């Protein structure tokens, strides 16, 4: 088959099983599902019983980056649809993404529209736009037509279809990220090399935000979100990296620290400072 649907599972088995059941309602059926388990510490029997999937069980957690890269070694399909476990997809989503990416061999990535699972009509994002001075992204909200994204814009790994050959020519995900900012990295790289990245607002998913990686305010997510902002800017903002550092050291990092104090999230402060030190 020309399409593989790839799900990276880590302690999110119930979400993954629900998504697989949801995929049965897709109006496009010519795909197979590959679930790559990142050494989950939970019972995988629900996944092991599913005959409609191929399950790869890894012996260590490689993060999203390493999980995708290793999983692709077992994929021969031209196109891959990467889905977060903690989403539900619209019945037209797969066909909308696939029909668009097949129109041009220079299209590397196509992203969809991410809605709020608990408020079905509320848009979370159609992707984002990165500010290279602050290193902070703002979501793209008001998108109503298919368009090619510009440099500094990106779409999300929550629902991401890509041309596997192009993805691997780009070197795959940079595994230093582990998770967060990894997709911005490879999309910016693709754009610099002349490939196209598109957004299709008709390809809808509903996201149970951070459901597959714990709460946004976890030590784990705070560390990687902080560290990876610096890693991304080092790679793609070298001309203005000194300005980026100045703005972060004088304004953004102190403000984030004060917010942790104000919210009494004292347990997150060590992860925040470690992310900053490792990022710098």
Structure, explained:
- The chain is an alpha/beta fold and 280 residues long.
- It folds into two domains: 3-207, Alpha-Beta Complex (Spore Coat Polysaccharide Biosynthesis Protein SpsA, Chain A); 219-279.
- The protein has helices spanning 13-23, 45-48, 63-72, 93-101, 164-169, 182-192, 219-236, 241-262, 269-279; strands at residues 3-9, 32-37, 53-57, 79-83, 87-89, 107-116, 119-125, 128-130, 137-139, 147-148, 153-154, 159-163, 196-207.
- The N and C termini lie far apart (44 Å).
List keywords for this structure.
single chain; 280 residues; alpha/beta; Spore Coat Polysaccharide Biosynthesis Protein SpsA, Chain A; 2 domains; 9 helices
Could you give the count of β-strands?
A: 13
* Quaternary class: single chain
Q: Supply the CATH architecture of the largest domain.
A: Alpha-Beta Complex
* Mean pLDDT over all positions: 95
CATH topology of the largest domain: Spore Coat Polysaccharide Biosynthesis Protein SpsA, Chain A
Strand content: 25-35%
**Rg to the nearest angstrom?**
18 Å
| Count of DSSP-assigned helices | 9
The number of domains is: 2
CATH class of the largest domain: Alpha Beta
- The CATH superfamily name of the largest domain is Spore Coat Polysaccharide Biosynthesis Protein SpsA, Chain A
Largest sheet: 10 strands, mixed
Elements, N to C (H/E): EHEHEHEEHEEEEEEEHHEHHH
Shape: globular
CA(first)-CA(last) distance: 44 Å
Q: Tell me roughly what share of residues is in helical segments.
A: 25-40%
Structural class estimated from helices and strands:
alpha/beta
């Amino acid at each position: 088959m020309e399409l593989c649907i790839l799900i990276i599972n880590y302690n999110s088995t119930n979400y993954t099983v629900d998504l697989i059941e949801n995929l049965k309602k897709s109006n496009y059926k010519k795909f197979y599902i590959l679930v790559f388990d990142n050494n989950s510490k939970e019972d995988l029997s629900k996944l092991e019983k599913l005959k409609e999937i191929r399950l790869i069980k890894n012996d260590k957690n490689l993060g999203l980056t390493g999980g995708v890269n290793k999983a692709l070694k077992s994929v021969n399909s031209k196109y891959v649809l990467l889905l977060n476990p903690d989403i539900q997809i619209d019945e037209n989503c797969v066909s909308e993404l696939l029909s668009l990416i097949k129109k041009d061999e220079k299209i590397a990535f196509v992203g969809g529209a991410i809605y709020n699972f608990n408020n079905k009509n509320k848009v979370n994002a159609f992707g984002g736009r990165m500010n290279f001075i602050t290193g902070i992204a703002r979501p793209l909200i008001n998108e109503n037509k298919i368009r090619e994204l510009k440099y500094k814009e990106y779409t999300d790994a929550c629902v991401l279809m890509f041309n596997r050959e192009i993805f691997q020519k780009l070197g795959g995900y940079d595994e230093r990220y582990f998770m967060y900012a990894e997709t911005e990295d490879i999309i910016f790289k693709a754009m610099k090399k002349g490939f196209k990245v598109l957004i299709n607002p008709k390809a809808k998913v509903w996201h149970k935000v951070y459901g597959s990686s714990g709460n946004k305010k976890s030590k784990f997510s705070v560390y990687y979100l902080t560290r990876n902002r610096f890693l991304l800017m080092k790679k793609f903002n070298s001309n203005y990296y000194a300005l980026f550092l100045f703005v972060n050291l004088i304004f953004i990092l102190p403000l984030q620290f004060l917010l942790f104090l104000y919210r009494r999230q004292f347990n997150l402060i060590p992860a925040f400072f470690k992310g900053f030190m490792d990022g710098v």
